[in-house]
Amino acid sequence: MTTANDSFRALVLRQDEDKKTLASLETLTVADLPDEEVRVAVEYSSLNYKDGMAVTGTGKIVLQWPMVPGIDLAGTVIESASEAYKAGERVVLTGWSVGEKYWGGYSQQQKLKADWLVPLPDGLSTQQSMAIGTAGLTAMLCVMALEEGGITPESGTVVVTGAAGGVGSVAVAILAKLGYQVAAVTGRESTHEYLRELGASEILSREEMAAKPRPLEKQRWAGAVDTVGGEMLARVLAETDYSGTVAACGLAGDFRLPTSVMPFILRNVRLQGVDSVMCPVARRSEAWQRLAQDLPMQKLEELMQVVGLDEVQEQAAKIMQGQVQGRVVVDLNK
Question: How many angstroms separate the CA atoms of 15 and 302, rounded?
Answer without folding.
Answer: 37
